[in-house]
Write a structure and sequence with these properties.
This protein is mostly helical. 86% of the residues lie in helices and 0% in strands.
Amino acid sequence: MLDKLKKSYWFKSGSLTLLNRISITLFGLLNFFFLIRILSPNDFGVWVIFLSITGLSESIRNAFIYNPLLRYLNSEDEKNHKHIISASLSLNLFAAFIISIVFISLAYTVNYFFEAPALKDMLLISIISVFGFTLFAHFTFLQQANLRFGGTVVSTFFQKLVLLAFILYAFISGYEPTLFELALYFSIGYVISSFLAYWFARRESTFTFSFDKVWIGRLFHYGKYTLGTNISTMLNKNTKEWFLGGMIGPASVAVFSPAVKVTNLFEIPLAAIASVFYPEMINRVRKEGISAAKYLYERSVAIIMVAILPCVILIFFFAEPIVLIIAGPKYPEAVPVLQVMVLYGIFEPFQRQFGVTLNAIGKAHINFYFIIVSSAVGILITWLSIKYYGIMGAAYGTILTYGLGAAFIQYILYKQIDVRTLNIFKFSAQVIQQGWHMVMKTIRNKSLKDG
């Protein structure tokens, strides 16, 4: 039974994607741990704002390129694959060109929004990372579309390692790095990882140099919905830092950051399960119909809830020592922020799997309209909350936005594919029961063996 499990798609792909998410989150935590002790609160706040801008640009490509590429490579005949791959790369390069123009524009206007003069040179040098990420993303997307995740893990690891190595050098030697140097090493990491990603994806990298307008159009029109959805979602997430930095100052972003960094831990199971369920859901829906999407949505949300809820409880009650460990004694104001923000873990599984499900059943436009509206409402709530409650307002606004969103999501999915919220709780109880029986069986077998 165990050997069969180890050979299964779910075990292998799930283990590798989980390992990749753990690796990304661990690198992020380590960077945070050392940088918050090296940089001043103001400089650290500027660094967080920089990461939110570059993260938004990366997320745009993930939505605009990855989702349509994955969908069509898994649903079209193999004779069309080289045209799909070439069209995808063309769109990726076009997106990189547009993002570079946006970065240049931001570099010369950012001081109107933040008191952060260092951001200008940081954004200009990060254009290197924009094109490095273009190739890195293209080749890792190809691997994932073909259900191969090992190369993604390795190339991502080295991409993150470059920046961490520089930060560790600065921390150990006592060197005071500039924000420009941090942005430079951040960019170099993507250049190195793009070569590694190509090495692992070279077998899948068949393409044609012909300009196939038909496939570019098909990928574009499918990707525009997931693009709009992703931009809205990321804007909703990042506006907290931007509003704090603009309305209060970059140092307030540093106070808010420990809560964000801890709650980002929830991204490990969320992203791992979503990346595994999405290609599987596309195949199951094609073979079995809409009922497969209903089952997989309810099941995946239940699994994530069971994994996350104990973490939410622990973080809530141990927020003070957690902040002290990861951020040091300079940020006691971050404790109540974390206690409120951790509740995000209860609502996010619904929203994450909502998008995955609608994309898989070919109704990305519904997700698009929902996210546009909910993000606009969320941004307004965040702005008002910060205006009246300061740093704590950013946390209050986040939880209120996600709570309202989860309620509307369940209503929409009930209308579309007959999802029942009660089934999610039933599945959760089953997962807990199965896990308990498995643990007890393991203990009994061990006792018998020892006896």
